[in-house]
Design brief:
The protein has 27 helices and no strands. It has 502 residues and is mainly α. Helix 6 crosses helix 7, helix 8 packs across helix 10 and helix 14 runs antiparallel to helix 15. The chain is globular and about 65 Å long. InterPro entries: Lipovitellin_superhlx_dom (IPR011030).
Length: 502
Amino acid sequence: MSVRTVRRRIGWLLKVNRKLGADEELRIAKNFARAWPGGGHTPDAPTVSRWESGKTAISTATVNRYEGLLGLELGCLTALKHAIERAAGTASGPGATAVDDDKRLHELLERSAGKDEMGGPSWIELSDHVRAAPDLRLHPPRLWDAVSDRLLGELVVAEHCGWLQRQEALSRLLEHRWAGASAIGACIDLAEDSTPVVIEPLSLLDSSPDLVAGRYIRQAVESPASDRALVGALLAASRKIRRRHFTHEDSSRIGRAVTSLLNDSTLDEGLRRLASEVESELRAGGATRADAASVWATSSRPRRISTRACARVSPAGPSTDEMLTELVGQALYDPNPDDRMLAAMFIAGTPVRAAVASCLLVEIEEDLRRRRHCDLGVLLRTMTLLRSGNHRPVLHRILTDPHAEESARLAAAWALPHCAEGPAVTPWSKILEVQTRLARRPSMIGASVLHGVVYGAGTDGDEATLRRVRADSDLPTIVRSTARWLLTARLPVRSLRHSGHL
């Protein structure tokens, strides 16, 4: 992703929040600039316009000021700025407040290594201090273990803005000379813990140039413990190739493993796309790829959704928003789950989120009525990433219908566990009964559907359903082991329905 694209997206994020914000006075750029004093250099209306069009670089302090003036949650827009800059490889250095403030650093370290509260902004502040001190060593060194374990434990159960903040903080620790080993160890330990939470700790290892991280990812591509582990390993491998983290031997072995995957006719289509991306990165030798955003904008569905959403939020405003069309298209169709997720999170970080979710639901209902299932999975996944719960009744309907097609059931099974709270209680017992019966038929998809159902029952705290699964020796091993883990997990599993990887 180019620097210009990054600036345009951050500018769009600021503009939409201002133009559709609760304070009508601030929707006028001149009034917004007039309200600025107290947040550093006072801009004028043309400066605001240049920021929001992406023509001028936007500092973290500027984004913080937008959050304050618009009454938004502290760090909610800043977290998206950090995320897109990291994805594009254009992350800025530590903030000025992180320099030469040992007292604050020690205070944050003491809190993070103990049990005192550490919100997302505090983790970002701590990681900013750590990044500003590349030679920082802790005594005893195991303090890094305590900090890393706690941060990763919070990350996998955090949601939305808090999840992004902790992901950025942990990525910074992974890049640090002395904190990195502990952060790598924490990720590997969680990935090895027979847990369904495996994509995050594996994919996060892309931040570390350490050979231990590279070797572990290579091994996970060669001999994945599960399909979800393979997703995490391929995500990390793709970016590590781009960042030239692998040795020549590791790159060669990953290449052979990926070729074997692509020759497997039974490979899931999503995994095939990820494996193809890794293969393309290896062929390119880590060269920067051109933006593919224009591809998403040419599809009729993203433009239709974008146009309808614009009409809902601002009937008198522009009929189209090219950036929204681009983001909707990428959220739906980008082959890389990380890029899809980030595009959806940008939409979710604006007041247009609910309108886009409503338009997606219209598309889903229409596709189901016409029995068109080719896009159902991507539509449901994007609804989830937008933190919407209004598709929950549709998911229930699909999973309790014994005649629903396999592709629809698979999409619904993995969308439901991460679905935002909705108006109806999920009938997990009925869903399990229907899906268990369907899984008896010869099918590779049945086990994956049941896996998603069990994971969802666990995040909803339905222990009775989990115990039934654990006791049923006829069910697939991965399904029973997931139920067992969810019944004994040290993590607060009800919080695992975050907007992470699906």
